[in-house]
């Protein structure tokens, strides 16, 4: 489950059962209300059950899928000191068992039905959601309502103990084992008084989590999880009348809970500035953060504060960027953002500086930038730029049925209006110059704030003068697992709640089959291929220009060249400075990025449909008329060095990079990260970038992919200038030699001192994207590690509580790509986790059964109905067609191939590409406590590597 502190929220419900209440019916023949903005609307119907559950329905027949989203009005702001993290912990517990569903159904069956499910907790609420093929509609009604009303009797002491370990693993992985992970905790404890509901983090503290008891869980459920404290949204391919009846049948008997008094807004009340510092074991760069108390969510000032954040640091002309990045060259960038919650808000300024940079100097630069804003102000053009961005973001935020359900659920529960989206847009667009300056003076100018200086261990000299040491709880890593060893435990014994309606599992409805969208294609005179999908669900267009080569054409000694070329293409054009280009893009409400991947350089854009032609014209200008500005190149080189330095203690990055080095060997470009290393990028010059560009950027072999509210003729007209201006030239795609794969069975260890978790990468080079077996291998991996229903997560998380998640994948690229298993496990469970993974992989093929074949087929076939809903996913279809020369119906062809696969086919594929004996093991963790455990697992054949992959004697 994601720990969601930014709160795009929605889901679940609550309580117990008994008499079947009736609907509070809407007026006869009333038209559905709608949230509107421009020509876009979200029609809905809303009603309330007698038990208080608010229900919002939204019809969307674009795809045969349905999304369920429930927002429960309880977050960490309802917790008690000493029991922090409990709202989030209860979210985890809710995904365990319920009275009328099979054990593990919540975590396993939904994905096997082809669906997706998750949850999230933030300061003010908790969300639960599923999106499924429409044939599982009744099943989700059953599972959702049972979780809401009938789960508490199934909670056992053993289940509680296991989930405590899972949540602790989540905290270690996302907060304790990463750089700057404690900043939010320090900020909250110093910004808010001890008795304020925002004084603690949503994830809570490890000691508090460990102390959670079964009575705590029961009390929390009965107090807050009543249906009268929640909103349920159902969106997608539904029939309104039938859905109302089914909501009544499944949710109507749930017993109403106690009233939950509303919390009133409570500002932070900070009276003086506080300056604190921390030495961070995982940080390699100094970071300064300043947090000013602001205002609660839905208050009119939040919109002006959001605009203010864009004006202060949102682009190259903003004063903080000009002073900190361009003039004083203290950091690669600067962030400013407004975050509002139910009770209060925070306005944050953040700078992650270059290595060895004094944060005192950064602080002075921020103050200078703020003074410049006061004296110079901002132009009407800048306001227009921000308003255009708001419109595009609005549509992007409701692209999928799930995003619509989450937005409507959150707005209904917290603003009392599922149509608040329209009001939200109007309020943002209505912000004036006077509003911006008023909130600046009211919340920032001369006001107290909490400032945190985070510096690498041993670099206390970099902190802001006068800063006081912050205290943060640090868990000690202890060798052995006996102190936290948990297991599945016995199932709960209880008497089922009596209900009027039968709560046994309903059957599937008619199975929807995935059908490829209509795809058009064309070839331009210069060799450029064009592929498109006309998709009218939202008035946006997403498109790209994909050029083969990318990182694969980098010289070994200068790995990272293509990445720098991609970045330079965004740094202005021959006729536009970087700031002018950025402004031109923003005024269209567009976004344009250029990235280098392992095998291509890609220019990707998203814009309002009406602005496709001018956005494409800017893409063409960037692609064909680069500015090659020496000052911008120097800035990018400095920024890259800063970012690469910042990754040096990131265990996940170290694991991934060294795994690739071992598989591809020292003479293959894919053994280097696409961004290069400090060593390979140091000598790259601007002339190197120009040489790469002149040699490799060509329409020959390139493709344009377009998805959105636009037809082929309009695209063709807009592409005419690119067709005539971009001359073709041959590009030689180098064939690199792969080393002999002789490392199978070898185990490697990389030391990150004091790591709270161990990162594991396990795998081998398997297949190329053109190999006909790739589809079979992808299918064969489905039950192993594709999602939380996979055996890896079920074993390591659900049964053992060793990890937050464990996954496996078969990658797709032109070069031979890996099959890889990856996870991050509790440090003192490293040895045990390795052995469990080895046993699972050893037995996966031989034990694959006829029942497994049917489960895999169901999961894949039904999952396809919702896997390609968004514009980005549809763009991915087009990219695969152009890159691998696939049929426009290739996904339907794959489905036919899947249906023909037998047990023998699955077992043969697993044995050929996933055999345990052929896999390389990479472990990144705390050598002092875990090396000997890993050595036992490796039977003494363990190689210690440094961070760059060199053996350590």
UniProtKB/TrEMBL annotation:
Domain Peptidase M16 N-terminal: 55-170, 537-651
Short name of any one Pfam family annotated for the protein: Peptidase_M16_C
InterPro entries named in the record: Metalloenz_LuxS/M16, MPP/UQCRC_Complex, Pept_M16_N, Peptidase_M16_C
Domain Peptidase M16 C-terminal: start-end pairs: 213-389, 684-859
Gene Ontology molecular functions: metal ion binding
Domain of life where this protein originates: Bacteria
Keywords carried by this UniProt record: Signal
Signal peptide residue numbers: 1-24
PANTHER family referenced in this protein's UniProt entry, alphabetically: METALLOPROTEASE, MITOCHONDRIAL-PROCESSING PEPTIDASE SUBUNIT ALPHA
Family statement: Belongs to the peptidase M16 family.
Name recorded for this polypeptide: Insulinase family protein
Protein source organism: Hymenobacter cyanobacteriorum
């Amino acid at each position: 489950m994601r720990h969601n502190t930014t709160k795009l929220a929605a889901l679940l419900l609550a309580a117990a059962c008994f008499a079947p209440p009736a609907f509070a019916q809407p007026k006869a023949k009333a038209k559905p209300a709608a949230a509107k903005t421009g020509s876009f609307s979200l029609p809905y119907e809303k009603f309330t059950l007698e038990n208080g559950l608010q229900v919002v329905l939204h019809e969307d027949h674009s795809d045969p899928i349905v999304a369920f989203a429930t927002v429960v009005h309880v977050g960490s702001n309802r917790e008690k000191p000493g029991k922090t993290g409990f709202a989030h912990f209860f979210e985890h517990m809710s995904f365990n068992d319920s009275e009328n569903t099979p054990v593990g159904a919540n975590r396993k069956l939904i994905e096997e039905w082809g669906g997706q499910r998750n949850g999230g907790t933030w300061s003010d609420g908790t969300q639960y959601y599923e999106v499924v093929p429409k044939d599982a509609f009744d099943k989700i009604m059953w599972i959702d309502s049972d979780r809401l009303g009938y789960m508490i009797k199934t909670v056992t002491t053993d289940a509680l103990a296991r989930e405590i370990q899972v949540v602790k693993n989540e905290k270690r992985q996302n907060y304790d084992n990463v750089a700057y992970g404690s900043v939010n905790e320090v900020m909250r404890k110093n910004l808010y008084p001890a008795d304020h509901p925002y004084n603690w983090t949503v994830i809570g503290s490890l000691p508090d989590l460990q102390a959670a008891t079964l009575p705590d869980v029961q009390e929390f459920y009965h107090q807050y999880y009543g249906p009268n404290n929640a909103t349920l949204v159902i969106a997608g391919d539904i029939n309104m009348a039938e859905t109302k009846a089914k909501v009544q049948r499944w949710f109507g008997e749930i017993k109403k809970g106690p009233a939950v008094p509303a919390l009133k807004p409570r500002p932070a009340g900070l009276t003086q500035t506080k300056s604190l510092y921390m030495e961070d074991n995982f940080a390699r760069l100094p970071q300064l953060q300043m947090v000013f108390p602001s205002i609660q969510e839905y208050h009119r000032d939040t919109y002006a504060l959001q605009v203010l954040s864009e004006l202060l640091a949102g682009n190259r002309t903003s004063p903080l960027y000009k002073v900190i990045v361009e003039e004083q060259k203290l950091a690669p960038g600067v962030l400013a953002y407004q975050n509002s919650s139910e009770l209060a808000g925070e306005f944050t300024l953040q700078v992650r500086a270059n290595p060895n940079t004094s944060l005192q100097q950064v602080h002075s630069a921020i103050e200078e930038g703020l003074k410049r804003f006061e004296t110079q102000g901002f132009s009407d053009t800048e306001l227009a730029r921000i308003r255009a961005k708001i419109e595009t973001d609005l549509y992007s935020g409701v692209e999928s049925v799930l995003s619509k359900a989450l937005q409507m659920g959150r707005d209904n529960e917290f603003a009392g209006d599922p149509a608040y989206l329209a009001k939200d847009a109007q309020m943002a667009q209505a912000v004036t110059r006077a509003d911006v300056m008023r909130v600046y003076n009211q919340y920032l100018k001369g006001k107290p704030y909490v400032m945190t200086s985070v510096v690498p261990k041993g670099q206390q000299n970099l902190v802001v003068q006068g800063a006081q040491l912050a205290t943060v709880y640090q868990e000690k890593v202890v060798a052995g697992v006996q102190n936290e060893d948990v297991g599945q435990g016995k199932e709960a014994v209880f008497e089922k709640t009596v209900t009027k309606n039968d709560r046994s599992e309903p059957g599937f409805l008619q199975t929807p089959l995935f059908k490829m969208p209509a795809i058009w294609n064309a070839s331009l005179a210069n060799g450029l291929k064009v592929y498109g999908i006309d998709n009218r669900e939202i008035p946006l267009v997403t498109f790209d220009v994909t050029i083969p080569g990318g990182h694969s054409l980098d010289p070994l000694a200068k790995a990272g060249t293509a990445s720098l070329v991609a970045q330079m293409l965004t740094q202005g054009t021959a006729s536009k400075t970087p700031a002018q280009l950025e402004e031109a893009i923003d005024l269209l409400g567009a976004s344009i990025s250029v990235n280098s991947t392992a095998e291509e350089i890609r220019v990707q854009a998203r814009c309002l449909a009406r602005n496709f032609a001018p956005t494409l014209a800017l893409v063409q200008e960037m692609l064909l008329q680069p500015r090659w500005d020496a000052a911008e190149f120097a800035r990018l080189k400095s920024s890259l060095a800063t970012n690469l330095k910042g990754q040096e203690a990131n265990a996940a990055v170290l694991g991934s990079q060294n795994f690739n080095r071992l598989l591809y060997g020292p003479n293959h470009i894919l053994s280097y990260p696409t961004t290069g290393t400090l060593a390979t990028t140091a000598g790259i010059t601007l002339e190197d970038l120009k040489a790469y560009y002149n040699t490799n950027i060509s329409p020959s072999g390139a493709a344009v992919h377009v998805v959105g509210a636009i037809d082929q003729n309009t695209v063709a007209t807009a592409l005419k200038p690119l067709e005539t201006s971009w001359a073709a030239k041959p590009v030689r795609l180098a064939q690199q030699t792969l080393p002999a794969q002789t490392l199978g069975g070898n185990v490697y260890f990389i030391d990150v001192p004091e790591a709270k978790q161990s990162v594991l990468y396990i795998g081998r080079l398997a297949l190329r994207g053109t190999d006909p077996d790739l589809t079979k291998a992808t299918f064969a991996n489905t039950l192993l590690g594709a999602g939380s229903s996979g055996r890896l997560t079920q074993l390591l998380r659900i049964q053992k509580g060793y990890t937050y998640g464990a996954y496996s994948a078969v990658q797709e690229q032109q070069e031979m790509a890996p099959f890889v298993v990856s996870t991050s496990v509790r440090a003192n469970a490293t040895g045990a986790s390795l052995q469990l993974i080895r046993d699972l992989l050893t037995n996966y093929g031989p034990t694959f059964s006829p029942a497994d074949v049917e489960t895999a087929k169901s999961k894949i076939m039904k999952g396809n109905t919702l896997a390609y809903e968004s514009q980005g996913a549809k763009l991915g279809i087009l990219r695969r067609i152009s890159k691998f020369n696939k049929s426009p119906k290739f996904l339907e062809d794959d489905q036919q191939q899947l249906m023909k696969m037998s047990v023998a086919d699955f077992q043969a594929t697993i044995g050929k590409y996933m055999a345990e004996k052929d896999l390389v093991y990479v472990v990144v963790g705390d050598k002092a406590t875990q090396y000997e455990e890993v050595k036992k697992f490796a039977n003494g054949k363990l190689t210690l590597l440094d961070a760059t992959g060199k053996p350590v004697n």
